[in-house]
Amino acid sequence: xxxxxxxxxxxxxxxxxxxxxxxxxxxxxxxxxxxxxxxxxxxxxxxxxxxxxxxxxxxxxxxxxxxxxxxxxxxxxxxxxxxxxxxxxxxxxxxxxxxxxxxxxxxxxxxxxxxxxxxxxxxxxxxxxxxxxxxxxxxxxxxxxxxxxxxxxxxxxxxxxxxxxxxxxxxxxxxxxxxxxxxxxxxxxxxxxxxxxxxxxxxxxxxxxxxxxxxxxxxxxxxxxxxxxxxxxxxxxxxxxxxxxxxxxxxxxxxxxxxxxxxxxxxxxxxxxxxxxxxxxxxxxxxxxxxxxxxxxxxxxxxxxxxxxxxxxxx
Length: 315
Ligand code: GLU
What we know:
Bound molecules: glutamic acid
CATH architecture of the largest domain: 3-Layer(aba) Sandwich
Number of strands: 11
Strand order of the largest sheet: 3-4-7
Helix content: 25-40%
Largest sheet: 3 strands, antiparallel
């Protein structure tokens, strides 16, 4: 059985860009007759709010999407909320530690910037970590531990390139060391997105991860984590983002893009779904259509391979 998911971070109101990813992930799975899971990625409790999580569920249902498993409906792999799954992430961490794939890092943000060297890090993170703490002697480690709580980093395997074929973006090749050794638990104890998403997708038996292309360069990290944990990686499909008229990724600052604002303003959901389907290449004109009506004709090949520039729709 194929299984897909949508995994929003409730750090604000869900907007057109998130809804478009949700719609495509849902259509992809429903068109294959597969199961769809909703997972709330609220691990960063400082950024997440319960009200935004609740609003996201309302927005998604209003758009005509449904899920077989999720925080509100439960399911065999519950809980579906990251803040309730911390022991799973700790278990993964212990496994990685036991295999020697993890080391403590005492670097400050300033240390990281000053030691930065090629290759580049993730586009969202700036320069790659230079590996400063990777080869500290036990004595240096003990000395540093007196002054600072460390973060924990995953040591990228030496000379290991990562190749995979993305279901939308095509063949990918990341040279050895891409992105640098990355944090899997922050100094304040927060498990990283990379670790939690891998454990969750594995635990929830997800076979197809369709998400925004801002996460394409996280994928080699996740593939290496699957490997280090002895887990099978899912198929990945990264959809190009929606950009605002200024060419930048659609975001709150573009204004008027919150799904709840359309809903509360009395917009018919089918018009919004039609607009989302149109900007995703699924229908020729932005006419009203329900999410369910799009399942039959859904075709990944129609999704544009480049970011799409959009105006905020007047619906
Ligand atoms: N929670 C992430 C976000 O809202 C998505 C993570 C994923 O799909 O892997 O951007």
